[in-house]
Q: What sequence folds into this?
């Protein structure tokens, strides 16, 4: 898999929008899904009806009428992102992943004070009315609202805030790990698999006000060294 790397060279002219966009790769190869907000090349405020998978043949994250409207392209600080309003917006794609699998996401909550469960990235086994599984989200009430990882059982993590973070969730039963910028909590999330990937909503109508810059899914458990290299690379890439 070949990628162009970011460059300081400037391009101008009438065909600028048709030029290939320089993108960064991840230090751990072999991801099965990857979504990069800056690849959308949309103006701020434009609807994101489909967020293409960078992996050839992969499925786009798309709006689902049952769950609401399209999120929007946004520049949050200096970071290109897809922004979810926390009331009506979500995306979904197929993502069949047995355990172990690993979720990597660069995101920020834009309202950490909302009570109850809020899904940053979710998944489920079975019909859309089934209980959510393979979830990275938040629960509780600010200022005690915490991040959690769930795959049938729950691993509780650090306090939630509104900063940009590199989140990594290793869904691997009794060897699961929730990493937030390299600070890790391990435990047993259960053994639930994932057959979709959702962003921004829970099937029970619990929406999440957040911005997402990048998402990747691996069909393996990233090792401690792989997690460290991924966190360091993404924090450097986004200036975190």
A:
């Amino acid at each position: 898999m070949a990628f162009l790397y970011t460059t300081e060279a400037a391009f101008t002219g009438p065909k600028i929008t048709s030029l290939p966009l320089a993108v960064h790769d991840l230090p751990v190869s072999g991801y099965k899904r990857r979504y990069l907000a800056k690849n959308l090349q949309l103006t701020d405020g434009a609807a994101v009806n489909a967020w293409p998978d960078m992996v050839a043949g992969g499925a786009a994250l798309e709006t689902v009428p049952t769950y609401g409207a399209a999120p929007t392209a946004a520049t949050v600080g200096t970071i290109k992102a897809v922004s979810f309003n926390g009331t009506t917006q979500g995306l979904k794609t197929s993502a069949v992943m047995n355990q172990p699998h690993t979720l990597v996401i660069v995101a920020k909550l834009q309202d950490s004070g909302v009570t109850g469960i809020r899904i940053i990235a979710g998944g489920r086994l079975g019909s859309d009315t089934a209980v959510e599984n393979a979830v990275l989200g938040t629960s509780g009430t600010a200022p005690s609202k915490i991040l959690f990882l769930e795959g049938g059982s729950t691993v509780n993590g650090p306090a939630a805030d509104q900063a940009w973070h590199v989140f990594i969730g290793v869904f691997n039963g009794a060897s699961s790990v929730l990493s937030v910028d390299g600070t890790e909590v391990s435990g047993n999330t259960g053994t639930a698999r994932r057959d979709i990937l959702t962003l921004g909503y829970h099937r029970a109508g619990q929406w999440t006000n957040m911005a997402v810059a990048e998402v990747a899914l691996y069909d393996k458990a990233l090792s401690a060294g792989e997690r460290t290299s991924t966190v360091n690379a993404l924090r450097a890439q986004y200036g975190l």
Notes: The longest helix spans residues 224-238. The helical segments are 224-238. The radius of gyration is 17 Å. Residues 1-19 have pLDDT under 50 and may be disordered.
